[in-house]
Amino acid sequence: MATSPSPVRRLTTYWKIEAGNAVLIPALAVYLVLKSGGTISTALVLSGLACSLLLVIGTIVLRMMLRKARGEANATEDRIPLLIWMRWPAIALCVAAAVAIGAEWINGSPELSAQFVAPAVLLLLAVLEYINYYHIQLQHFDHARDWQRLVSGRGFRRSHLAREIERWKREQPRGA
Question: From residue 63, how far is each of 48, 71, 113, 162 by CA, in Å?
């Protein structure tokens, strides 16, 4: 089976960017909070962990898609159970971060500062990554065909991971 070089090239770049962002985005948030005179709070730590975990999940998904684009046998089967399991810690971290942000907002009289904005932005990014990977492909700006599909009115499509999980579940033996 011949592979198209374009998806392979794109996915080779994407997974590396996603992996780097798992460290760089939370680190940048911490830097900005500290630079502005804020402190490392529970909300910042939890939202940073949630964001990092979802970006690590994204890295695994993109590597899985790369293996599939290269035509490797069993490119997805060994990753799907891990990715199904990883969704629950990701959800738990997002919920914990939301609670911590809410508690800090209530207890600290809300003000628009890096101390509050950074955890909120990290949590928003985590939630968007969760939706993008586990439900609906939100990212349509980096590939011409996806962008054309979106602007043509055909809307968003199910994410690659959601389709792979659905396929994997269908193929599992009943009663096992």
Answer: 22, 13, 37, 15
Give the separation between CA 99 and CA 19, rounded to whole angstroms: 27
Instruction: Let me know: does 155 contact 136? Beta carbons within 8 Å.
Output: no
- Single-letter code of the amino acid located at 32: L
Could you please report the per-residue DSSP string of 14-60?
Answer: HHHHHHHHHHHHHHHHHHHHHHTT----HHHHHHHHHHHHHHHHHHH
Q: Mind spelling out the 3-state secondary structure of 93-121?
A: HHHHHHHHHHHHHHHCCCCCCHHHHHHHH
Distance between CA atoms of residues 87 and 94, nearest Å:
11
Q: What does the pLDDT look like over 109-135, one tens digit per residue?
A: 667 888 899 999 999 999 999 999 999
Domain ranges of the chain: 5-171
Of 76-85, 91-100, 106-115, 130-139, the one with minimum mean pLDDT is 106-115
Q: Cα separation of 171 and 167, whole Å?
A: 6
Radius of gyration of the chain measured on its C-alpha atoms: 18
